[in-house]
Amino acid sequence: MTFGIESGLLDLLKVEGGYSNNPADKGGETNHGITIAVARANGYTGAMKDLPVSVAKEIYRKVYFTAPGFDKVASVNPEVAGELFDTGVNMGPATAAGFLQTALNALNRGGQDYPDISPKGPVCGPQTIAALTKYIKVRGADGITVLLTALNVLQGARYLEIATNSPKQETFVYGWLKNRVATS
């Protein structure tokens, strides 16, 4: 799979669907996967039912791809960037960045390949990009597969934790695992 932001947006919009106002969804009103809070924070003042796809795409590009540095990750490896983008949309970009940092730390063989980096997000900055670049240089194509698996494991575990801590969220777990983890 090769990820590009435009194709990623099309795939994402298929998963996210249209307008929703599910009382169990902590995000409240959403359209095209954009919550009302995120829409308002990015200058959209209209009714959520009327949120244009073009506005949703621009928010996704700005908030969930460029701001957290996933565009820089894409320049190193598009597949990893695609995984982070999708995870960031559903769990927040800082969580996705933290997953990458955590996985890279666990895969650096005790610091032999590159130094540990702070696994706190909120963005993929120069240290994260350097660690990812070195990881790929050392581990190659198989390393990408392993890294993507690690990211999916972290994501799936987080979904189960969310449902355990908030049983109302159980209504979403099957779809999260099916559409966000099993297909990645």
What form results from the Cα inertia axes?
A: globular
* SS summary, helix count: 8
Largest sheet: 2 strands, antiparallel
- Mean pLDDT comes to 92
Look at the structure and give the CATH class: Mainly Alpha
Question: Would you give the CATH topology?
Answer: Chitosanase, subunit A, domain 1
| CATH 4th-level superfamily | Chitosanase, subunit A, domain 1
Report low-confidence residues grouped into runs of 5 or more: none
Please indicate the percent range of residues in DSSP E strands (runs of 2 or more): under 5%
Task: Please name the CATH architecture.
Answer: Up-down Bundle
The beta-strand count equals 2
| Helix content class | 55-70%
Decide which structural class fits the backbone. Answer: mainly alpha
Multimeric state: single chain
Radius of gyration: 17 Å
Q: Give me the strand/helix succession.
A: HEEHHHHHHH
Spatially, the strands of the biggest sheet line up as 1-2
Distance between the termini: 9 Å
Number of domains: 1
Keywords:
184 residues, mainly alpha, two-stranded antiparallel ribbon, 8 helices, 65% helix, Peptidoglycan-bd_3, Lysozyme-like_dom_sf, TtsA-like_GH18_dom
